[in-house]
Amino acid sequence: MNKAKYWIDKLQLKSHPEGGFYKETYRSEFYISSSDLKDSHYGKRRSSSLIYYLLEGEERSHFHRLNSDEIWIYQQGGALNIHMISPKGELITEVLGCDIENGEKMQVIVPANYWFAAELENINDYSLLSCLVSPGFVFDDFELAKKEQLAKNFPKHKQLINRLSF
Question: What's the pTM value of the predicted model, to 2 decimals?
Answer without folding.
Answer: 0.95
